[in-house]
Amino acid sequence: MIESSAIEIIENADLQPFTTMAVPGRAEYFCRVDNQQQLLQALDYARDRQLQVTALGGGSNLLLAADIVGLVVQLNLIGIEASEFAPGQFHVSFAAGENWHQAVEHCLQQSWYGLENLSLIPGNMGAAPIQNIGAYGVELCDLFVSLEAIEISSGKLVVMDKQACQFAYRDSIFKQAYKGRYLITQVTLLLSSVAQVNIQYPALASALEGTEPSPEQVSAAVCRIRREKLPDPQQIPNAGSFFKNPVIGAELLQSLLETNAAMPYFKQPNDRAKVPAAWLIDQCGFRGLRSGKVGVHQHQALVLVNFGGTGAEILQLAEQIQLAVQERFAIALEIEPQIYGLPS
Ligand code: FAD
Ligand code: NAP
Fold this sequence. Notes:
The chain is an alpha+beta fold. It has three domains: 74 residues, 2-Layer Sandwich (Uridine Diphospho-n-acetylenolpyruvylglucosamine Reductase, domain 2), CATH 3.30.43; 148 residues, Uridine Diphospho-n-acetylenolpyruvylglucosamine Reductase, domain 3 (2-Layer Sandwich); 110 residues, Alpha-Beta Complex (Uridine Diphospho-n-acetylenolpyruvylglucosamine Reductase, domain 1). It contains eight helices and 21 strands. Bound molecules: flavin-adenine dinucleotide and NADP nicotinamide-adenine-dinucleotide phosphate (NAP). The site of flavin-adenine dinucleotide has 33 residues, from strand 4, strand 9, strand 13 and strand 14.
């Protein structure tokens, strides 16, 4: 163990307990930072030794295919601040290490509404903009105002607004041009004390049919549906949806519907359609399948589960699924979690 002023750098650290997929994997160097000063110290440490830096939040959207080279920085910055910039309208700033679901609950307690459909998503605030988290008809970008981040190479603080983040479906500039370039330290959202419930999403609409639910009731319904359908990573390790739902063009949609009349789809802008990847995977016979020590969840075919296997085994199963879906439906499924340890 090496002491570096206030931060503690651990060599060859075990990352398995820090990820919800819980496959074996280590970090060449690892440190936890609790404040901005420690974060800058960690970046200095990495710069001095020319180490690549990888951010870690709650570890719920990544897969360790092998060990991570360089310094893994776990961001544990804590704090929530709110300012009322217009009657009933709040800018609420969350430090990167705030747990997402606890933050949602805190906001509900304060009567700051808007996040209720995003209840029970695992992980931390700092990672939420990375893939523009979304569920039950709401996405982070619907509430997003700005974020603060530190550029890894220079240690400089930047502020980015919604446009700069280039949010899209489970995507942002941080998965594209700015991949691995910034550590997000704070996220500011626009919340309102005036409830505007959104229960159009089919599963939510049927759960709350005939009621005029409060935001608290929407949150409770979302939690109930999620607990019924999704495996708890504490019981069965997983990283949530392993593939994005594909968005396909009108021509492919038409040709697929000719032979698969029951295929569900949701119309999108520009004459495109989103097809639930879980349905495609189920049709290919993978739902509930177990392959060695990894498998596909029984109730949600989009979730790959780990029964004590490795990241390589998970990726092998993912590849089999991708090949089967490609062959049968001519659709390329894109992996959603960030994969670490692959040769670049
Ligand atoms: P991590 O897994 O730690 O990191 C994910 C990526 O973000 C990595 O590339 C990491 O380097 C980077 N990163 C993390 N923190 C920072 C930071 N501060 N600055 C810069 N980069 C950073 N996602 C949804 O969108 N909707 C859902 O409904 C949903 N449901 C889920 C259900 C389950 C059971 C599970 C296991 C996952 C689910 N997810 C869902 C995926 C996941 O919870 C989210 O993507 C979440 O935002 C990841 O947060 P995290 O802190 O765990 O990120
Ligand atoms: P579901 O209700 O079975 O629906 C299947 C898919 O169809 C969803 O993924 C959803 O896409 C799409 N869909 C449903 N209704 C839609 C509509 N009205 N308009 C457009 N698209 C629609 O989904 P689920 O698996 O139980 O998940 C419920 C919600 O939680 C979804 O929003 C899902 O994205 C989210 N979730 C995400 C993860 C993750 O790790 N990313 C894990 C679990 C759950 P969308 O994905 O765009 O909503």
